[in-house]
Amino acid sequence: MASDDRYVIPPPPQATIAVQGTSKTFPVRRIWCVGRNYVEHIREMGQDERLPPFYFAKPADAIVPDGGTVPYPSLTKDMHHEVELVVVLKSGGRNIPVDKANDCIYGYAVGIDLTRRDLQIASRDLKRPWEIGKAFDHSAPCGAIKPASETGHPKSGKITLKCNGKVRQDGDLNQLIWNVPEIISNLSEIVALEAGDIIMTGTPSGVAATVAGDKLECEVEGIGKLTVTIGQPLK
Ligand code: MN
User: Fold this and answer.
1) CA of 204 to the centre of ligand 1 (A)
2) How far is the CA of 172 from the centre of ligand 1 (A)?
3) Is residue 192 included in any domain, yes or no?
4) Ligand 1 midpoint to CA 231 (Å)
5) Residue 26: inside a domain
6) Does residue 120 sit within a domain?
7) How many angstroms does the Cα of residue 83 sit away from the middle of ligand 1?
8) How far, in Å, is the centroid of ligand 1 from the Cα of 41?
9) Residue 214's domain is classified under what CATH number?
10) How far does the centroid of ligand 1 lie from the alpha carbon of residue 33, in Å?
11) What are the pLDDT tens digits along the chain (235 aa)?
12) Ligand 1 centroid vs 228 CA: distance in angstroms?
């Protein structure tokens, strides 16, 4: 890349996600995540299902592409998979009305909110932030995006994760507590959403530990697939 005199160091590379049917890629600005957006997952985590969902975030460069390998992260003995519908935005704004929210969507993908569960729970119990458990390197595998121009805006469809060929997570988008337009509208009251922001919309039940050597195969019906391998820890 040509040198750029504006910066004192080379600018970091732009994080991207592949788009189905084109060689062009989607540039990622921020990754927002919704916590506790499926009742069965709230129950398996022993949390109060009457409390509303909430948000946390991951760095854009936590994206791992389809076919990639996730090095088993440091400091944890209990990394969990959470398969999620990912919504990617082509525009944004503040205080977006629910009935205008779909206009902001470029497309959809399937992703995994990888979680150092032991560290997340320790943070939660100490009333500390969740970054150590959620926002680590390689923590956001994401499959190729299907443009909404081709899919429309799905209100239902199976969302699944298999580990080494065995089904572990098997939900449906119709189980979302806050649906996608509601998430976009609500999040836009908290921050100004912009093109390039992506949202992981929460996981159905069946989260479990994953270890080096595991092959995780995810699918959202009508949207796409994602396969990643969990690798050895980095030296
Ligand atoms: Mn999640």
Assistant:
1) 9
2) 15
3) yes
4) 21
5) yes
6) yes
7) 7
8) 10
9) 3.90.850.10
10) 6
11) 556 789 999 999 999 999 999 999 999 999 999 999 999 999 999 999 999 999 999 999 999 999 999 999 999 999 999 999 999 999 999 999 999 999 999 999 999 999 999 999 999 999 999 999 999 999 999 999 999 999 999 999 999 999 999 999 999 999 999 999 999 999 999 999 999 999 999 999 999 999 999 999 999 999 999 999 999 999 8
12) 17
Into how many domains does the chain fold? Answer: 1
Distance 11 CA to ligand 1 centre (A): 30
Question: For residue 6, how far is its CA from the centre of ligand 1 (angstroms)?
Answer: 38
Q: Separation of 56 CA from ligand 1 center, angstroms?
A: 9
Q: Distance from the CA of 9 to the center of ligand 1, in angstroms?
A: 34
State the distance from the centre of ligand 1 to the C-alpha of 202, rounded, in angstroms.
5
Distance 104 CA to ligand 1 centre (A): 22
pTM above 0.90, yes or no: yes
Q: Is residue 115 part of a domain?
A: yes
Distance 218 CA to ligand 1 centre (A): 14
Which structural domain, as residue segments, surrounds residue 162? 18-231
Task: Concatenate the DSSP letters of all residues of the chain into one string.
Answer: ----TT-SSPPPPPPEEEBTTSS-EEEP--EEEEES-BHHHHHHTT--TTSPPEEEEE-GGGEEETT-EEEPPTT-S-EEE-EEEEEEES--BSS--GGGGGGGEEEEEEEE--EEHHHHHHHHHTT--SHHHHS-TT-EEE-PBEEHHHH---S--EEEEEETTEEEEEEEGGGBSS-HHHHHHHHTTTS-B-TT-EEE----S--EE--TT-EEEEEETTTEEEEEEEEPPP-
